Amino acid sequence: MKDTKQLFDWLVDGAHGASDASEVIGRVGDDLVRAGIPVDRIAAFVRTLHPHLMGRSFTWKRGEGVRVGEASYDFVQTAEFQSSPITMVYRTRKALRRRLTDESARGEFADLDDLAAQGFTDYLLRPITFLSGEVHVVSFATKDPAGFTGAHLAAFDDLMRPLARIAEIMALRRTAVTLLNTYVGRNAGERILAGQIHLGDLETIRAVLWFSDLRGFTALAGALEPSALIRALNELFGAQVTAIDRHGGEVLKFMGDGLLAIFPFDHGGTVPKPPRAPGDLCDAALDAAGEAFAAVAALTEVRAARGEPPLRFGLALHVGDVAYGNIGGQRRLDFTCIGPAVNVASRLEGLTGQLGRPVVVSPEFAALTKRPMASLGTFELKGVTVPQPVFAPEEGQPLSAW
Fold first, then answer.
1. Against a cut of 0.70, is the pTM above it?
2. Where are the domains of the chain?
């Protein structure tokens, strides 16, 4: 067996060249094999701060590379997870080792019985303790008939300290990305992490603007308990956010019962993305709108079965230039967009109830989309100096009626 000093130094120096946890686990596995340590499987499970996911797994197998998996909060409540060796190490904060060829190891953990059936002979599960006190885990398994020797175990011990620091650094960055994407939006999160964090950091971008609002919110608020009202808003926003995200838009802000999103002409951000034609972006916004309205209609049926009032929302789509970036005070910033175009979109949305239309669009939007639009007339909009022509999907077309 060769020493693992080169791998140890690489971890201590910050795992240079590895862009994420899967590359770190892959390098650790490959280097251990080159050092003569008979490891055939490494699996790390790192808990994360995410609205839907409890953690992520990284599983390396010799000759197969690394597979990344995700565990939901529902999964970690299952009997399968609660009776796993991972849960035991979380609870005890101590390493767990089992010789899988021993009779005493059989039947204790279903996961280890599965590994034994695959030909694994020895298994070591180690806690990865972060400076915060959080415990995560990494396991090493082999198919060597002799299992791990004392020298192999000592090599694992040596690697745990720098591996824990690298894991913590990468976990913290992923948490930061997740939280920024969750609270300010994907593209805005990229810009903030890239350093666009100063008051007044603004740029002008052109975008399709999505401005929506719940119909009858005041009556709904008066009829529902606060918890039921929050659930209704979450259902309404959830239907829209999923559709907007799927079609390349970005939700910027929730304003009471309203939602502001953009489909930017220039994606920007730290990761270049291929540009999309303005007309395609307008059609993408309409596709998202169709999915959102269909999802809300399905929700309304479920709510009716629960004896709850229906949900309806109005949507305005506009195209214009907006100032996009940091707005606020020295100690509290908001990453959003402002400008006359946002005001136009907001005022247009106010016409949806008056005109009995679920969707209205501006002439700028109507001129770009490939979908047929019909003129609804010209209207005075509060705060807008010039009367605005208003359009909507033609009668009989999707999104022309609730």
1. no
2. 5-182, 194-393
